[in-house]
């Protein structure tokens, strides 16, 4: 742990302990003594840095105005060196504080003479770089820390619109189609504004994380992995974050309203993939970890891009520019690679699973709407069979996942319960897998309706296969 990190952690521990109404009073001499720092300039710099990163709020009483917040002005020396001031950890700063606490608990890796696998100096440089991902800005982790709040806001906006949607479509002879569309557009505005705000926050987070990934990639022995994830990130954010705005312009309000859940899923998918990517990066502490990077993260990125491609292709289709076409072609090749790996996994589970997959693609290639619908049904059957194979009812019901369920009226495990049983409750994988599964459920009725578009059906099949493959390689069983 870097000296600046240790000092920051000591300051945050001090601010948390003994705080009244969230504020801890102190003075510079008292704080220096409490955190064992003899260099007052270094301590002041640490306070300024924590404030600049929005980890700490700092205030002091000034007559006759009362409490005045520190805002990093030119008179900062006077602010800290004269009299008492008060410290409070911000909402955005808590994830950063928790990260420092967790890092402080980890043992320091050292190379010893004669060790069988000494850690090289190069591998040790990954630890501060991985830490830098978290240190770059607490704002990078702010979205992850209140994902539930963001998703609840999206869900509330969607629910409110659905209620308006039903009310607007209660037939009235006097209501013209144009008036109906106008009312729908007005009802959609709160949800679309939420999407815009979340997209803006996501874009800032992704930009910051990518900067650190470039640094990590420059010193890592597996530079191609970092390059691939960066390329994925660029394609994912380019397509997904601009999608709500493009769809609002391209789709009539009644169409946009019917597909609002799909639009929300584009942002949820990116959010959880980005959070997963961040947590993977923070875990990079040695060369040995680099050789064990989860393939699931790459497949998850494939799924997130595929979802946006599927949504864009729904009629009326959004036209793709040259760059989007190039990216779609690359991701299509990657879908085929994942399909080949899935076949190997399925063959090991049983020939019936392999045959079910092959018959699905054969039906799609035969052409026609009937073949496309049979293909979709076959892959959905495969997905369901694998889900139940990896999470037998009798096994799930022995665990706390089932025994501590909120709804005691349930007679069998839900899909969410099964995914938790298979992958475990690890936040970086479980939340994403559940969200991806819900995305597929939302998309199913539209791909079934537009089965006359073979490319749309192909994307849907590949999406289901990506989910199945992620379950198989994420399984803890």
Structural class: mainly alpha
What characteristic shape results from the CA principal axes? globular
Count of DSSP helices? 24
Backbone CA Rg: 26 Å
Brief sketch in words of this structure:
The chain has 477 residues and is mainly alpha-helical.
Describe this entry's structure for a reader:
With 477 residues, the chain is mainly α. It folds into 3 domains: 3-104, Arc Repressor Mutant, subunit A (Orthogonal Bundle), CATH 1.10.10; 121-290; 294-300 and 342-477. The chain contains 24 helices and 4 strands. It has helices at residues 3-16, 28-34, 40-52, 76-81, 94-105, 121-124, 126-135, 138-145, 147-168, 177-219, 223-240, 243-250, 253-258, 260-282, 287-290, 295-313, 322-349, 351-365, 369-390, 393-396, 400-403, 415-423, 427-449, 454-474, and strands at residues 24-26, 56-62, 66-69, 85-89. It has a 4-stranded antiparallel β-sheet. Helix 10 packs antiparallel against helix 11 (223-240), helix 18 (351-365) runs antiparallel to helix 19 and helix 23 (427-449) packs antiparallel against helix 24 (454-474). The radius of gyration is 26 Å and the shape is globular. The protein starts with a helix and ends with a helix. The model is unreliable at 108-146 and 285-293 (pLDDT under 50).
Q: What's the SSE blueprint?
A:
Layout: H1 3-16, E1 24-26, H2 28-34, H3 40-52, E2 56-62, E3 66-69, H4 76-81, E4 85-89, H5 94-105, H6 121-124, H7 126-135, H8 138-145, H9 147-168, H10 177-219, H11 223-240, H12 243-250, H13 253-258, H14 260-282, H15 287-290, H16 295-313, H17 322-349, H18 351-365, H19 369-390, H20 393-396, H21 400-403, H22 415-423, H23 427-449, H24 454-474
